[in-house]
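Hello Y.,

Per our agreement to keep a running log of every chain we model this quarter, I'm adding this entry. I've kept the format consistent with earlier entries: sequence first, then predicted structure.
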Amino acid sequence: MNSHDSESLSRLPADVDVVVRARMERKEMQMLDKLVEGLGHLGVVTTTNKALGEVMIQSTKHCWPDLKRAIEEMPFAIEFLEPK
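Predicted structure for the entry above:
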């Protein structure tokens, strides 16, 4: 996580959710969902546009850094998108 991410998260109240949009290969979407589900309490993945391979990852301010690191180590490419 870079310092910009840390600064943005530090301004959020402790109980606020972090919502991150991401894009990936359609064929890998189910694997992401299963792997994140297997991590238990760290977050939830929702498909927002299956045709485009877009998902929404919801976590908490405190869990997001660990979840992001875990996702980045998963065996597929994922692009985190900036909010519109």
